[in-house]
Amino acid sequence: MYLLIAVASIIVLHYIFYTPVALCEISSVMQRDPAARSKAEVFFLYTGLHALVFHRYAHFFYNHGMKFVARLISQYSKFVTGIEIHPGATIGRGLFIDHGTGVVIGETAIIGENCTLYQGVTLGGTGKDKGKRHPTLGDNVMVGCGAKVLGPFTVGSNSKIAANAVVLSEVPENSTCVGVPARIVRINNKRISPNDLDHIHMPDPTSQEICKLHKLIDDLSKRVDELSK
Ligand SMILES: CC(C)(COP(=O)(O)OP(=O)(O)OC[C@H]1O[C@@H](n2cnc3c(N)ncnc32)[C@H](O)[C@@H]1OP(=O)(O)O)[C@@H](O)C(=O)NCCC(=O)NCCS
Description:
By secondary structure, this protein is α/β, with parallel strands linked by helices.
């Protein structure tokens, strides 16, 4: 009997805190998930939304020096959702974490507005940096399932990180990154060929000019020959 009352109290408490913040975030899920059939479904069953709401509380306590309470909330959230967001992470409005299981967001990560993360995404550090050691995502960034973004660099707004990519350096705005380690394959919807990004085999401008001069000399000497005949 006491156990039943304890469980019921936890559920009631959960929804008392969950409801007001969840209502503000539901619309971003409805807009971006074609599988979301109703607001009720999103409200009760979307673990990404649950994790985000509990992060908002954890972050509040973290910013007000109550680090233990903050961690307690984030660990409770991890236990019920499978999504671990450090209470120190700064997250903008409209984050949609789809499916969610295995998502890890580090302490100094910053996420802009209206970003989307799929299951298994890590916004982590490489272990080499101190202080700011996790990535910053601009607005409207999509990070595909299983992708790892590691280090204190920025992923520009409107960029897409492909499923299972491992991103280790800055990504410009409006880009698509794929592979391990990730390389940029599109910028502003234009395909980038691997040669465009080859910084080792760059054409040498001096030798190009010398070639042009050689050709000019050849042409001129042919012309002189013709005229002299
Ligand atoms: C990267 C992605 C966003 C597509 O972006 P896009 O800008 O439309 O790029 P394209 O589809 O034109 O692909 C560009 C190139 O990257 C390659 N590519 C795309 N996704 C890739 C991936 N995950 N890994 C490796 N290469 C990939 C394509 O084959 C293509 O190569 P090509 O130029 O040699 O033909 C998409 O493929 C993706 O990975 N989305 C993640 C979705 C997800 O995680 N869903 C989970 C739902 S549960």
